[in-house]
Design a protein that fits this description.
Radius of gyration: 18 Å
Largest sheet: none
Strand content: under 5%
Distance between the termini: 32 Å
Number of domains: 2
Helix content: over 70%
Structural class: mainly alpha
Shape: globular
């Protein structure tokens, strides 16, 4: 259902390279001609994806292709399409689409990582509580971002004008925008975690499935 529809490893690598190049070009463009802060964010996010060993002191040796592809798409949606191309201002409710999509991807990745830890003995938890905690985690990340938006708009933007205004959009007040963002965060996390759970249950019986190989890659990625 999920990973089976992702391109083959060769196709994934080509797509990841294309996404990286797109992100780097967008980052350079923002630094030179646009928003310096957004440009720096794009470059840092792209570097974090490309250099896991450097940023984690080799604790994470490599990122499996599926996870790297998801990370790259998240950067593309948030920073390249949303900020650089300007979809946040050009497309109504694009921010709600992002607030659903990013927790959806986080739910997918989080549940897969938690399930891998569970199967390898590193986490003692049944799938029900695991699902609940992953959803709470995605909501917590969304709430943290809303706090950052409020803090920036209240205390930083009046004094540092190039930071811009983060809360609210053309069709919503800041309070309504914040609450709707949190609601979309919740539904995205639920949908991602449930979809991941259904995929795992459907594929876990096949020891030669891509799911089994992906779980082994995750374990190897975090092993010293």
């Amino acid at each position: 259902m999920l990973i089976d529809h992702i391109p083959s490893p060769t196709g994934q690598k080509k797509l990841i390279v294309l996404l990286r190049i797109t992100a780097i070009i967008a980052g350079i463009y923002q630094i030179v001609f646009g928003d310096l802060v957004i440009g720096i964010y794009i470059m840092l996010a792209t570097a974090a994806i490309m250099l896991p060993g450097l940023f984690t002191r080799n604790y994470i040796k490599s990122v499996p292709l599926e996870l790297e592809l998801i990370f790259s798409i998240m950067v593309l949606l948030q920073l390249v399409i949303g900020e650089t191309i300007g979809f946040y201002h050009l497309v109504p409710f694009y921010d709600k689409f992002v607030h659903f999509s990013l927790p959806f991807f986080i739910g997918l990745i989080g549940f897969l990582l938690a399930y891998t830890l569970h199967k390898t003995g590193g986490l003692r938890m049944t799938t029900g509580p695991m699902l609940f905690i992953i959803v709470l985690l995605t909501m917590g990340i969304g709430a943290t971002w809303e706090i950052i938006e409020y803090t920036s708009d209240t205390f930083l933007s009046p004094h540092i004008t190039f930071l811009g205004h983060l809360q609210g959009n053309a069709s919503e007040t800041p309070l309504v925008d914040t609450m709707n963002d949190l609601i979309f965060d919740m539904f995205g996390g639920i949908f991602g975690a449930v979809l991941s759970l259904r995929y795992i249950r459907a594929k876990s019986r096949n020891k030669n499935s891509r799911l089994t190989m992906l779980m082994k890659e995750i374990v190897n990625s975090f092993s010293r």
